[in-house]
Model the fold of this input.
Amino acid sequence: MTSENFGRVRDCMKPDVTEVDGRMDVLSAMRVMKEVGATSLIVKRRDENDEYGLLLFSDIARKVIGEDRAPERVNVYEIMAKPVITVRPDMHIRYCARLFENFGIGHAPVEEDGKIIGMVSYYRLVLYGLPNLD
Done:
């Protein structure tokens, strides 16, 4: 398989993302994750000069459960990653995979015209970005 066979981030991203406020408590965020079937949430910008944040299941596991903290007493902003690295929807997935490796990340919001339009992960790069998997 040559690199020309690889798709673009737009082809494999999850287009439906859920945004939450950073002041939300982690227990409420977990309920949102369960309701929408997501393992990550975008944390909204407070204003146009702010940056997006990202809350992952692994953040909750390590920083709340692993530290024996009560999720209803921890706010999302205390454990989220911010700022986050975003990718363009027209980026080749091979470059996205390299970016993930270079920065030690496994998820990235997809940003277009200053708005988050999707989420991409190693999982989606492999299962939806490579052709002829059928």
User: Anything to note?
Assistant: The domain at 3-129 is CATH 3.10.580.10 (CBS-domain). The chain has one domain: 3-129. The longest strand covers residues 115-121. The chain has a mean pLDDT of 93.
